[in-house]
Fold this protein.
Amino acid sequence: MSDKTVFLVMDVQNGVIERVQNGEAYLERLAPVVQATREAGFKIVYIKTSFRPGYPEHHPHNTSTAKAFQWKAFGEDDSSSRIHAAVAPASQDVVVSKHRVSAFTSTDLDLILRSYGAQKLVLTGISTSGVVLSTVRQAADLDFRVTVLEDLCIDPDPENHEFLMKKIVTRQAEVTSSAEWLAGLKPTSS
């Protein structure tokens, strides 16, 4: 693996975990992979959804932000926007706040990745039909090579997850398991 690989943990925050089935089992799979990635010296970037007080980022035509606005969830200082403690960022990790589905839209993620010299992204997150799909598509358009760890992505609809991983995501990303990815993990030289 190249030291130009960055590992993304997307929307694994309290307010999302509590809304997905088998969230605890997901965290049990994700936590050791995050730790192994960190120990191997890879950069880790966390993506979370959060909004400023009063939700100025909410647009009435956007159905995704409408839910957060209606629930009054994912405020900057609200516990729902915090990364879940089971996979909490370390001091050297970066946390990017987003206000839309894609991890890139209206964030400084691209700037951070370019500053790291990133060429390849490894994606994990909730949900497959949301942040994962949107970020894969935009990352590919930005010329990143993308790997998606299928077992470290979940969706409220398991059939959507299966379909997207097998038919859609594979068009722009390599889809593999965390075990296969970890088997090829070599420490970085950063």
